[in-house]
Specification:
about 325 residues; alpha/beta; five-stranded parallel beta sheet; two-stranded parallel sheet; globular
Length: about 325
């Protein structure tokens, strides 16, 4: 039986066979999984967002479903629908693709807000309510959503309530020329992740998530985290600060990062490093800053500056 460090290393190594030259992105993806969170990947098309989600799913012996979001997608296409069974003379619920351990919501901002909102209950409470019936989702459960930049044609901006359900937002970015050459030299395949074999079971993931809960966070670190959250609410640069859900997310993510890096306790650097990734999509930059549309880059810079201005506990 692998210990937690070996298990985490095995999944990172497995994903890195497909996603070249992005160790930090892979590490943060594993952190999101172990923190029981959902991941938003925002970047230009063609840099590997979907491949990253596929690689994580293939590395786990879990169920995986992909939903291609389009402008005509309906909520029932995601959660499922009740169909009348003539033999039983009763309605039968036919589960939708949301009933899987890992769900890839591809190009989530190409569909309407009504359809986007059908994910909210699943992401918050790991359950689906249809026709006065509640259906629990199997664990572990994780939504990995990809979205194109908002200036792309045919996109609908994600509402704040939807963004707040994502534990963190990542960008993959372009690979280095050396890593891109490795991709070009690779044998042609529609989905390179299909070659990966599972390295962890669903129970392994649940055990690792339970390990995260045991990671120690000193009282001074909790105060430090709350000071950062409070600073976002008081900043004149922001019209919307971080919610309580955001504070919980930062705490949970810091514990997961500590475990991924082989520690049973959190450090101030865990919180400092994660704050822009976990908080920037939960705030709104004030109109006085001259931003017409949501700018994650500017939001990240503001969070970074706020974190730098708060004394780090010794």
């Amino acid at each position: 039986m692998m210990n937690s460090t070996q298990a985490i290393r095995s999944i990172q190594d497995n994903i890195s066979r497909v996603i070249k030259g992005k160790p930090l992105v892979i590490e943060m993806t594993v952190v999101a999984l172990l923190a029981r969170g959902h991941l938003l990947l925002e970047d230009v098309p063609g840099v590997g967002k979907t491949t990253l989600a596929h690689s994580l799913a293939r590395s786990l012996d879990c169920s995986f479903k992909r939903i291609q979001f389009t402008s005509d997608l309906l909520p029932s296409d995601i959660v499922g629908v009740s169909i009348f069974n003539r033999q039983k003379q009763a309605f039968e619920f036919m589960p939708g693709p949301i009933f899987a351990n890992i769900v890839l919501a591809d190009e989530i901002n190409r569909t309407t807000p009504k359809t986007q909102s059908s994910l909210l209950e699943a992401m918050s409470e790991a359950q689906i309510s249809v026709d006065n019936q509640t259906y629990p989702l199997s664990q572990p459960f994780m939504v990995i959503a990809t979205q194109n930049p908002s200036e792309y044609h045919g996109t609908f901006p994600l509402p704040e309530s939807q963004l707040d359900r994502f534990l963190m937002r990542l960008r993959i970015g372009y690979p280095s020329p050396q890593e891109e050459r490795k991709v070009l030299d690779r044998a042609p395949s529609l989905h390179p992740a299909e070659d990966l074999d599972p390295v962890l079971t669903a129970q392994d993931v649940l055990d690792l998530q339970a390990e995260v809960d045991k990671v120690f966070v000193d009282e001074s670190l909790t105060e430090y985290l709350l000071s950062i959250v409070q600073a976002t609410r008081q900043s004149e640069l922001l019209s919307l600060g971080v919610s309580t859900r955001g504070a919980l997310a930062l705490s949970r993510t810091a514990k997961a990062l500590a475990l991924v890096r082989g520690r049973t306790y959190c450090l101030p650097d865990d919180i400092k490093e994660l704050a822009p990734t976990v908080l920037s999509h939960r705030i709104m930059v004030a109109r006085s800053q001259g931003v017409r549309q949501r700018s994650f880059e500017q939001a990240e810079r503001i969070i970074q500056d706020l974190v730098e201005s708060i004394p780090v506990p010794v």
